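Purpose: get a first structural picture of the assembly so the mutagenesis plan has something to point at.
Setup: three entries, given in the order below. No constraints added.
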Amino acid sequence: MTAVSCIDLCKTYRQGDQDIKALDHVSIDIQEGGFVCLSAPSGGGKTTLLNAIGGLDIPDSGQVIVAGTRIDNMSKGDLADLRLRQIGFVFQAYNLIPVLTAQENVEFVMQVQGMAANKRRDRSFAILKEVGLEGLEGRRPAEMSGGQQQRVAVARAIASRPALVLADEPTANLDSKTAGELMELFKMLNELHGTTFVIATHDQRVMTFAKRLIRMLDGQIVEDIDQRAA
Amino acid sequence: MLRVLFMLAWRNLWRNHRRTFIMLAAIGTGVWAMIFMTALTRGMVDQMISDGIKEMPGHVQMHNPEFRDDPSVNNLIALDDAELAARFEDAEFKAWASRVRVPAIVTSERDSRGVTLLGIDPVSEREMSFVNYDDVAGRFLESSDDKGIVIGEKLAEILETEIGKRIVIMSQDPDNEIADRGLRVVGLFTASTSATEETYVFMGKKTAQKMLGIEGATTEVVFLGDDYRNVDPLYDAVVGKVDGNVEISRWYDVNTYLGTMMGVMDGFVLIWVIVIFLALSFGLVNTLVMAVFERIREIGLMLALGMKPGSILGQIVIESMLLLAIGLTIGNVLAVITILPLQNGIDISIVADGMEMMGAASMLYPALYANDMILANAVVLILGFLASLSPAWRASRYEPVEAISKV
Amino acid sequence: MSIVLRLAWRNLWRQPRRTWLTTGAMVFSNVLLVFMMSFQFGMYDLMIENTLKIFTGHVQVQAPGYLDDKKMRQTVADIVPLADSLRTGLKSNKVAARGITFALASSEERSYGIMIYGVEPGFEPEVSTVPGLIIEGEYFSGIAAAEIVVGSVLARNLKVGLGDEITLLGSGVDGSFAAAVATVKGIFESGVVDLDRNIAEIPLQFFDDTFYMQGAGHQISIFAADLNDVGDLQIDVQKMLPAGSNLVVPDWNLLQPGVRQAIQADMSSAFFMYFVLVILVSFSVLNTQLMSVLERTHEFGIVMALGLRPGRLGRLVLIETALMGLMGMLLGMLAGAVVTLWVAQVGFSIPGMDEMAVQFNLPATMHPSLTLFSLTTGPAVVFVFTILAACYPALRMHWQKPVEAMRAV
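Result (structure tokens, whole complex):
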């Protein structure tokens, strides 16, 4: 089953007096349960592609299909709903809402979804335990290390059991040991729940974890490697 | 969902506690000033009105239609005393009284003055009169046939007379013959303004009628209701009981200055409350704009996670309303605790003559009305809501991607 | 422009919306202050002038005690020659003698107790607006004429018209019975019902004859060229009084204490309102400047680490505030002046004001008068409070340690 399907995506930004082609006729299919790394140097188009898949950004042309639904022509409200119910996000930084505790951050999406309080609570505790943050549920983001914060973000991303998790440079602000632990966590969750992961990164260590590695340059896919064999 | 928004709004409010405290101080001060100032002016106007009504007296009056323009003994009420008593005896007014009110001149051996002569029945006017019978030096009139006269202390001073001395009161009878009579001063009253003490002299109603040659007739009937702010029921009741050639007027028809004062006061309260709010609103909008600006990334994150723009808007508006609600509480409490100790009156006799020019007394009793407090609070909440819409709307319109990547 | 000024100016515009909102608060208050003060002081002057012009004058010459008791026998002897000598001495015609008493005025049908003013027909119009308010007939033909000018309500109540006779009954200065008959020569209407109902004027000599005054009167009403000259006038008049006389020269403050006190009462409530406005603006400025300092903690930390004294940074914050305050002051004065001048053109009236206005001898439509005082006072005070409000954020610099500051985000 195809989790994400992109057909001929194009997106051009204007930066200063220059047009930058962030996506230049990009087409990919990502299977359910996939663990995909999008790798590109800065400005290579990986974040743009990730945002297009997540419905955060709308391509100039081409189609994006997530879980069988075409999303590039959806309304903002529907996109918000889609993100709320189908997609988990992990960003590079500022992942967490500063005024909420770790547990509340994890509960946030479920709460907005309207899930019952006791159910959310059980699940957020379970997931925080799963990501190794047992005992830190009551801490606010400012009271946690960068790695812990990213784990909370991951916990939040998977808490509502989305089919797809999108992560944009999740390890950028972490040291290599913590980054490795985070990737192990991703991998574990991928295998445990069958959640599809799409991770944009230029971190070599991250790429080695991926089942499939897609390299981009100047808005085009230059390489698409299946790493499972290796 | 609403709970999440409240929680976020509440916690965000205390993130920058210094800013919040300053805003609370500003709102508190503003609201305090709104209510405090209103209570003072209300107190002043209330007293002006109640003194004014007492002096008239009564909430509703009945006259010959010519009388108010031409207060003469010729313009008598078409109904005589017996007829009036028959009509109003069992009516459910708080109080009513019929009286003789004519212009007159009093003369002592030393001087003479123009005054308003009130021929009254002291028993039926006890509750309505501006004179407190017990505070009168000497004694007040005891009955309608009392042969004495009660004048103000200031008038006694001018006439160089005193209790026990005789003065002559002079007016006209219906045939325009001079009607005069010598009476012994039996009491001196005091009033809140010296003009009142100079203007009014009291005689027994029957004595006055006899002197003026109008036995059984009166020029004025006065009615007291329960609330001077709502005199229409009383007015209707009086109108229902009489027919014929009489004019029935409410107090504010008689004293239009006081009547307008009440209206102008309401306008003043509203303007004052709005002006203060506007002065506050700059700070409020500024605070919200700052709060939104600082939180662009978080707002972007929430949007990215699937929160609807409407919820973002709601969150900012709730934050603003919480801020206002706390500020309002502080302001209201401050107002109440500063006004309560002043309930016994503020002495402003230093500007007594000026207050007299306005028709007010030299003690100021602040009047704290629920309606005024509700008005102030409602204006702040409603206008505050409107003022916070713009920054909140802006916050909800961010593009998540741009917001998140903003540094 | 010095580098500090330029830096301060640019810092202001890092957050244009915030700067404008804060400036807006100042402009709002300043416009209000300028307008209200122009309105208020214009109103006071009118209140004073209009009240004094009816009868009172700027100063009067009276017998001692008359001011409080207004008794018939508290007289100024030989009042007409005295008024004449004052006119000569002051080189001014705005001097008029009067006799005043209560009397019963009777027509064929009615009698009313009223105040009778005996006036000098030649000079009364110089010191009182009443002669100018005659709507029917005219003023007196001579100082001894048996004529009377009455208020319109009084004429109506007495049911008299021009040419009708009114009998005056009262007591003479010696306490004897006094009576006279006068012909209605004119009817005035001031719009103030109390005045129109209760007052009549007769020529001074006729007054003298009727009430056995023997040359005496009760007051000489005098106007100065300007309200500000009243003090000098009072001294001049005092000097010109006959040697050995015990006459007093009260000024309008004593004659009409109500006016001054009504103004004081109104002023104190107005100043309370102004003060609240200024305080609210100060909070706004305090908030803005504190935010702007807190935001730049990191930046300030770096500069301090580089060796800049905290005092200089504090000064920078004060200069930023001063620039903003200056902007608020100038824009506020400009907008305030425009609004005030515009309202001065078209006039200003509150619905229902007429009744109130009459009480204070004011016209129903008022025109604020913009003066240097009303234009600058409010904005200047706002400016001072603005600077005061910025002191706390500026002083905070001194407590800040560079390293901690740099660590702040």
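The longest strand of chain A covers residues 2-15.
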